[in-house]
Amino acid sequence: EVSALLGRIPSAVGYQPTLATDMGGLQERITSTAKGSITSVQAVYVPADDLTDPAPATTFAHLDATTVLSRAIAELGIYPAVDPLDSTSRMLDPRVIGNVHYEVARSTQKLLQDYKG
Predict the structure, then answer these.
(1) Distance between CA 45 and CA 85 in Å, rounded?
(2) Using only C-alpha atoms, what is the Rg of the chain?
(3) Which domain holds residue 115?
(4) In which broad location class does this protein mainly occur, judging by the first location in its UniProt entry (predicted)?
(5) Residue 12 in this model has a pLDDT that exceeds 70
(6) Mean pLDDT of 70-87
């Protein structure tokens, strides 16, 4: 629909061919200046819970962290239904959080992945 309104031929899964450029332009406007900084909290609709869909995948590439809510975890009655394996953070780096915290986080992720698999 957006492609048709813009007079462009749709590309992947019907999204406008300029999706990545448009999203990049929007995200670049969210920046810190000498007068202050902006923290952006964005809710992203993920069609059919497919994190590889072009729209969420393009959006996630611009974010420092993502918190993914899981239907499967919610069905278990666990709230908030945060999926620690699909959620990400660029701050999970030993240079930022220290080696001990980093190793604990990675060990926990491995344990959860082994349990899931």
Answers:
(1) 19
(2) 18
(3) 64-117
(4) mitochondrion
(5) no
(6) 96
